[in-house]
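Predict structure. Input: ATP synthase subunit s, mitochondrial-like, 217 residues.
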Amino acid sequence: MKFNFVLYYSIILDFTIIMLRTLQSHIFKQNMIKMNTRYLWQWIDDTFNWQVLDDDRIKEIGPNLACAEWLMKNGARVKWKGCKEYVSHYDCLPNSTSIHLKQFLIEQVYAGKEASISHIGFKNCTHISKMEFDGCDSIDNEALSKLNILKDYLIALKINDCVNISDQGIMSLEQLQALKYLELKNINSLSHPEIMIDHLKAKLPECNVQYCSNLLY
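Output follows.
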């Protein structure tokens, strides 16, 4: 039986074409993922967060507990008013039938690298006076602009190494007129940080604005 070289090379050629197309498709998908990862995860975060914190849940357990539950489920920590320690797991929340629900008021929020929160969830939580975003990639310009929900209550804000924050987000902090302390660290995407810090100091004359990147300002 003679070896069919034509059939052999035809099979090799078809296999090579399939492999090249597969490789091309993989490279294309990888590039698309790199370009759209931020927007994809932002959409997932927003969709999930809106579904978790709804009006029915707020009515059931109150705005503070609903906010605390949402924060903890999304990796953040909260500190109750009058308490010294942060709480990080929603299983620690009081039962919804407790007569003491109204005593649990969120005073401080900490969101680190593991958190996936945005501006969603702070509705009616008027007792939040201190917030810290430390390496929290889900915090972006829109999230900072929507902090105006707390503009009359937030007195201290710390932002460190949040890569999705730029000029627009920092400029929007001027609306937080109750701020007494603002700390900005390692926000390397700012185009003119000195100008922005001077602007914030002018707009927030009662606030101690601290900025630190590679150099102290």
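The chain has six helices and six strands.
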